[in-house]
Amino acid sequence: MKRFFSCFLFQTRPEDGLSRGRRVLFWLWNAAVTAAGAAAVGLASLLLATGSCSARLLFVDYLCHPVLLLLNLLPPLLLTALLYAAAGRAWLACLLAALPVLGLSVGNYYKLAFRDDPVIASDLLILGEAGKMAGQYHLFLSPKLALALLGAAAGIALPALFARGRPGRGARAGTAAAALALSAALIPVYGSDRVYSENTNLGHLNQWSSTHQYVSRGLLYPFLHSVKDAMPNPPEGYSEQEAAALLAGYEDGEIPENKKVNIVGVMLEAFADLSVYDSIEFQKDVYAKYHALEAESYTGNLLTNIFAGGTVDTERAFLTGMAPSDNNYRGNTSSYPWYLKSQGYQTSGDHPSNNWFYNRLNVNAYLGFDEYRFSEDHYKVLAGADTAFDNLFFSELTSSVLEKTGSGAPQFSFSVSYQGHGPYSTDVCWWGGVDDFVGNHDLPQEQRTILANYLGSVMSTQYYLSEMVDAFRACEEPIVVVAFGDHKPWLGNGNAVYDALGIDLSRMSTDSFYHYWGTRYLIWANDAAREAIGHDMTGVGPDLSPCFLMSELFAQLGWEGDAYMQAVEPCRQALPMIHNGGMCLTSGGELVRAADLDGERAELVRRFRNLEYYRAHHFSGKTG
Q1: From edge to edge, which strands make up the β-sheet containing 411-416?
Q2: Does an H or E element contain 122, and which?
C-alpha cells in the first residue's frame, strides 16, 4: 500500500521497472484526478449560474440533466487539458483554467443580482465600462459565492496533492491535439439553435423570462452559444436585395419650412411612474408636476427591452428606429439625426456623465450628432464631480437649447440624464428622511430607504423637467419636447423591493409584462409649435416600442420621415410594439408571441426585421 501511494500520489514519472499496466494506470490516475479538479471548477461555475434562484432546486436540476451538465463541464475540462499539455503540471493547469471560468462566473453572479441580466459574449466588447460601473455597486460575499469559491479551490488543490505526473513532450502534444480537435468538433454543437432549444431546464424557472431561459442552461454553455450573436447576424430569411428594393420604393420626405420645429428629446434615467402601484404608501405626491405636464401633452406607455440597466438599448432604438440591442457601432450608422441633418437641422445633446460610458463619445458622432457635451468637457468643472445631477443638467440643457434657438437653423437636441442611476443607498436617504416619502413600515428599513431614495430622485427630476418646459413655454420659437424613461428602476438585489410590495414581475401576464418593461413617454409643444403643426399635441397615444417612438413623434408633427420610417410604418400601425424577448403588441392591445403570428402580421414582422438589419449595415446619410 505504501508503495502504491508513493508511486501514484507523489511521483512525477512512473518508477522504473513498473509493469506496462501499472504505468498506464499511473497516467490514467493523473488524468482522472486532473479531470476531477477541472470538473470541480465547472460545478462551482454551475452553482454560481443559479444567481438569485434557489441553488438547492436549480443546481440539482442541472445535475439531473446529463446533456446540460456535460455542455457546461466540457469547457473547463478541455481548457485544463490544453493547459496541462502546455504547462505539464496538473495543478497549474487547473488554476489557470479556473481564472477565466471563475471570473466569468462571479461577474455573471453579480450581474444577475444587480440587474437581473446574465453575462453574454457581447458584454466582453464593453468590459472596461462594465468594470468601472461595477465599482458603484456594493459587492457582497454570499454563502453561495463562498461555497463555489471553496469548491473551486478544492478542485485546484486536488491535482496539486494527488496528480503530480509530468508527461513527456509526445504525450503532451497528443493531448493538445486531441483537445483542440474535440473543441473544433464541438463548435457546431455549442452554436446550434436546435440543440439550444432542446436542452433547457425550466422546471423551477419562468419560461417567459429571457433571463431564466439563459440561467436554465447554466452559464458556460449559454455564454458560448451567445458568441455567435456577439456580432449581428441576419434575421431568418434575410434578403439584402429584397430590403434594398423595398426601401427604393420610398423617398425621404421633405419637411416643409413652415412645419420645422425645434425638437428637444430627453431620456430620463430609470424614470417610471410608480404611482400606479397601490401598495406603495406615498407620503407626498412626488409625481405632481409630471402628471400636470402629462395633462397638457400627448402621452403613452413605452415598452422597453431592458430592466434596471442597459440604458443604451432604449436610447439607440429611439435614435435609429432599430430594435436589436446587438448592433456594433464602428462607423457612421443610419439614424434619424442624420435624416434631420439632411433637412437643415443642427444636432446636439448632453450627457452629464463620462463620455466612455457605452462609447457615446464615438457612437454619437456615428449617429449624426454635431456636438455632444459630457462630464469631461463640460459638466465636471461645473459639478466638481464626474456626474452632474438634474438641477445642473436641466439648467445647462435649457440654456443651450435657448441659445441655439433662433440661430437660423432648427435644432434636434437629444440628451440623456444620469441622476436616477442605481443602485440607491440602503442606509442613508439622500433626499431627506425616509418617512418624508414612504410609509410601508412593514418593509425592512433597507428596502424603505431604497424606495425613498428613488422617489426623492423622481420628485427632483420631474421638478427640473417641468422648470425646463416652463422656460420653453415662454419662447417665441416653436419647441417640442419628447421625454421618456429608459427602463424601470433597480429596487434592491433580486428585485427585493418589488417583491415585498407585491408587484408582479413574472411576465406571466399582460399586467406583469407592463410592470417589468413599461415606462412612460410624453410629447409636449409650446404655443408656437402648436401653431406650426396645426394641433395642440395632447391626448393619449399608443403603447410603443422605443424604436417606434420617433415615428409617433413625426406623425404628430405631420412629417413623413425618411424612406426607412415610411417603409416600416405599416408594421408600426399593426404591431406598435415588437419586443426583443419575442412578444408583440397588436394595434388592439393584445399581447402575443411573435412566433404565433401568421399571415399578414407575420410578414410585416419579417419585413421589419429585414429592413432594420439592412439599415444597420448600409449607411444612407450624407456627411458633407
Answers
A1: 371-373, 346-350, 411-416, 262-268, 479-485, 518-525, 298-303, 539-540
A2: none
CA distances from 259 to 153, 346, 405 (A): 68, 16, 15
Residue 551 in grid coordinates: 415615428
Instruction: Supply the DSSP symbol for 438.
Output: B
Cell 422546471 identifies what position?
A: 203
Residues counted in the chain: 624
Calculate the CA 308 to chain-centre distance: 9
Positive or negative CA dihedral for 51, 55, 58, 62? positive
Instruction: Give the tens place of pLDDT for each residue, 264-284.
Output: 999 999 999 999 999 999 999
| pLDDT, tens digit, 9 for 90 and up, residues 358-416 | 879 888 999 999 999 999 999 999 999 989 999 999 999 999 999 999 788 999 999 99
Nearest-angstrom CA–CA distance, 166 and 489: 54
How far is 490 from 451, CA to CA, in rounded Å? 10
Here the cell at position 550 is 420617433
DSSP state of 282: B
Nearest to 114 by CA among 369, 388, 308: 308
Separation CA 445–CA 449 (nearest Å): 6
- What is d(CA 83, CA 96) in angstroms, rounded to the nearest whole number? 7
**Rounded to whole angstroms, how far apart are CA atoms 319 and 562?**
13
Separation CA 595–CA 207 (nearest Å): 15
- The C-alpha cell that represents 472 in the structure block: 420653453
Burial class, 504, CB count within 10 angstroms (exposed 0-12 / middle 13-18 / buried 19+): middle
CA 610 to chain centre: 22
The answer to whether the beta carbons of residues 484 and 522 sit under 8 Å apart is: yes
Strand bridging mode 583-585 / 577-578: antiparallel
For residue 508, what is the enclosing H or E element?
A: none
φ/ψ of residue 471, rounded to 5: -65, -40
Beta strands in 314-356 (DSSP E): 346-350
Question: Contact, 478 vs 532, CB < 8 A?
Answer: yes
From the list 455, 463, 467, the residue with the least C-alpha distance to 430 is 455
The string over 279-302, giving b where at least 16 C-beta atoms fall within 10 Å of a residue's C-beta and e elsewhere, is ebeebeebbebbeebbeebbbbbb
Dist. CA 546–CA 320, nearest whole Å = 10
Closest CA to 138 of 102, 110, 112, 174: 110
384: alpha, beta or left? (left if phi > 0; alpha if psi -120 to 50):
left
